[in-house]
Amino acid sequence: MTAFRRPTNIRDTLVRSTTPSNNSSGFKPCNTPQCKTCPYTSSTSSFRSSTNGRVFNITLNLSCHSHNIIYLITCTKCNKQYIGKTKNSPRTRFTSHRFDINNDRGTSVAKHFNLDDNTSQHVNIIAIDQLPGLDSISLLNKETHWIHTLGNHMA
Ligand SMILES: [Zn+2]
Ligand SMILES: [Zn+2]
Question: How many CB atoms neighbour CB 51 within 10 A?
Fold first, then answer.
């Protein structure tokens, strides 16, 4: 028996190579009714540096509850961004950022969202990366990597 071999289609190959291996990956709000962080997040499979315009895919499945993460805060008013790391979840971290903002505690994030016309309502927070286990050094390295890659820091 002779099998009919389908000729290799270059376009197939190209399409396949640019399609993420897991279509459901990305950051998604947890959609728990009590979650006070969900309204400040967005469902997304990618994010864009507002400084250099580079776009990155989120290759993991992340939500408000994911731990050991690198997160990205974007001001929806002026597009300034802030990268942070936490062993906790975006939900826990956001609660403390919001406390800092509301009390003008002098952190980079608090300073920004206390500028004229900026409020905590302009916070958009998503997790962009995650470490498989607890490791402060690796988390710090990842944070440094993302700060350099995105080329920005909130000011
Ligand atoms: Zn949530
Ligand atoms: Zn702003």
Answer: 13
